């Protein structure tokens, strides 16, 4: 971004949890949560993988940047598919693998948040029910990963999540 050009404010409606807080506000892109700013809803760390839809530069130094949230959801769905292939199927297993305690994550708190937001229990198979639980899981994980209060931001659009899951099965690069 050119330092001489002022950042264009982004309009949003903030919310807390399931109850909408009808607060209109204005934020510049640098004030958005990292996962929202990077179009990387689940804060995927840059490990060098050549994901479809990477922005240029590809990361902010740690987390990947995507051209559109659909590509961020696609990458997350592909990662979760790799988990499933390894036998990681329950919500608790997914969260423990995605956000391990060894990285300083509070897995019980993360699992409790997902349950509160979605009704998915720790032992529920997130790959069952034709993908409905997977969509709910990805949306709740995006909130937990930093989009708290941005439930109505376009990055949280369920159509983006659904499209990301749909194109995750493509045979293109990562």
What profile does the largest beta sheet have?
2 strands, antiparallel
Radius of gyration in whole Å, from Cα?
16 Å
Strand order, biggest sheet? Answer: 1-2
How many distinct domains? 1
**Any idea what the shape is?**
globular
**Low-pLDDT segments, ≥5 res:** 1-24
The secondary-structure element order is EEHEEHHHHH
Helix content: 25-40%
Strand content: 5-15%
Tell me the structural class: alpha+beta
Number of helices: 6
Describe the protein.
By secondary structure, this protein is of the alpha+beta class. It has one domain (10-167). It is built from 6 helices and 4 strands. It has helices at residues 34-37, 69-85, 91-98, 107-118, 132-147, 158-167; strands spanning 10-16, 19-27, 54-59, 64-66. The strands form 2 sheets. Strands 1-2 form a two-stranded antiparallel sheet. A two-stranded antiparallel ribbon has the order 3-4. The chain is globular. Mean pLDDT is 82; it is low at 1-24.
Please sum up the structure shown:
With 174 residues, the chain is of the alpha+beta class.
